Amino acid sequence: xxxxxxxxxxxxxxxxxxxxxxxxxxxxxxxxxxxxxxxxxxxxxxxxxxxxxxxxxxxxxxxxxxxxxxxxxxxxxxxxxxxxxxxxxxxxxxxxxxxxxxxxxxxxxxxxxxxxxxxxxxxxxxxxxxxxxxxxxxxxxxxxxxxxxxxxxxxxxxxxxxxxxxxxxxxxxxxxxxxxxxxxxxxxxxxxxxxxxxxxxxxxxxxxxxxxxxxxxxxxxxxxxxxxxxxxxxxxxxxxxxxxxxxxxxxxxxxxxxxxxxxxxxxxxxxxxxxxxxxxxxxxxxxxxxxxxxxxxxxxxxxxxxxxxxxxxxxxxxxxxxxxxxxxxxxxxxxxxxx
Length: 339
What we know:
Layout: E1 16-22, H1 25-35, E2 40-43, E3 49-51, E4 56-63, E5 68-73, E6 77-83, H2 88-97, E7 100-101, H3 115-119, E8 122-123, E9 126-127, E10 132-139, E11 144-149, H4 161-164, E12 169-180, H5 190-196, H6 206-219, E13 242-243, H7 245-249, E14 258-259, E15 265-266, H8 269-274, E16 283-284, E17 287-289, E18 297-299, H9 305-323, E19 332-334
Parallel strand pairs: 1-4, 2-4, 3-19
Antiparallel strand pairs: 5-6, 6-12, 7-12, 8-9, 10-11, 10-12, 13-15, 14-15, 16-17, 17-18
């Protein structure tokens, strides 16, 4: 039996009843069909997942296919098709090295290309859905290949059709459309603009922006560094809450608020946690709030999955008691749930 702690960035999780690593599309489909109606857990980099200490009573399929197809035109830009198992950060680095623009603010996000559309990953004012043209999948229910256009993916904030129908669609590869160019679009995220030494709304170079994003992420403990236990996390554990305007009005002065098109308001999970009484470095069992960023819950070296889940519940209850807001996990919980 494979021990899942060896395949996740949090380094916790019990054994898988069955474990198979696949490198080609044919192997992916073969493994899925061989599993039949038993539970299947698809993993790539294992960077956005918290698996229970009892493990997974089913088949774990680890996808590591990293095929690449590319067409580049000076006018229309670059059309890329990337295998689901490709490392996301390596893919972003490759696009920038080849002179493509668009993904620079998404630098340093851990995980694989196949996981990106499921979570609709995003950072510093951009989401991956802005650049995806289509997602090709294997439909476990229909036992057939199915390709989704961007609009059919039903992308939302850290959400998609694939996340809303867990276990049905297995991502095989993802299509992207990127610009060819050296400059970014206007930088609209204040923290990033300040780091770049520009005004909000100004442009920067793609290379400088990527460098700034990586430095910001490292300062927050959001880059995986094997020697740094403060980075043994799954990134942001909670999503930023989207709340009613009435509830937003009750937040204290200074609370971050971003008005959305539908009249609701997005606020900062990190701000809520810090201002509810949870602090960087707070520990519970072998789990710890990162000393760099309160949104990252870490394995201090000997944590169990239960330790991390309990620490998440402590932070969640603190925010609920203080502000009346229930934080939702961004991390995929397997065999666990939050109170």
